[in-house]
Design goal:
163 residues, mainly alpha, Four Helix Bundle (Hemerythrin (Met), subunit A), 55% helix, globular
Length: 163
């Protein structure tokens, strides 16, 4: 399929709202975890949900910042040195990145969505595809968290409750 510039089918604001709906749902999944399991529990050798959530945090704002500026750090270079060790600390980081996304996303110039770049020095594609990747990655890891919650006997939040 030829990559051609077409009129937008979704506004940047609606795109951000869609992403933030997923982030709201992932936050509910973090909240559903017992404190003692969030940082230690895993199934089948997968990472604990806290590490999956940190990966989502470390992708979101640096991706949008890279799209705005065209300058990309190596993935993980922007990460905080200190990892949270409590659910409260993780939720605080989550909320800070949510607010930062709300602040930065409107700064993306419309033409930047279609431009092709090599994000983090490793992912080449259009900038809008990178945002879809961030969303897809979050959905994938949230699904892992849902498996953890179910094996712990906890009903995960309904996937359609994105508000």
């Amino acid at each position: 399929m030829k990559n051609e510039t077409l009129p937008a089918f979704i506004s940047p604001n609606d795109f951000l709202n869609h992403w933030q709906g997923h982030r709201s749902l992932t936050r509910k999944a973090i909240e559903a975890f017992p404190e003692d399991k969030l940082f230690s529990y895993s199934v089948g050798g997968m990472r604990p949900f806290s590490e999956l959530a940190l990966e989502m945090i470390h992708m979101a704002v640096p991706s949008v910042a890279g799209i705005i500026t065209g300058e990309w750090k190596t993935f993980g270079e922007s990460e905080a040195e200190e990892k949270p060790t409590t659910k409260t600390g993780l939720l605080k980081l989550w909320d800070e990145s949510t607010e930062k996304l709300n602040e930065l996303f409107p700064q993306i110039r419309i033409e930047r969505f279609q431009e092709v770049e090599k994000a983090f020095g490793q992912y080449e594609g259009t900038n809008y595809a990178l945002i879809f990747y961030c969303i897809d990655n979050e959905i994938h890891h949230r699904g892992q968290g849902y498996v953890y919650l179910r094996t712990l006997g906890i009903e995960p939040p309904f996937f359609w409750e994105r508000g």
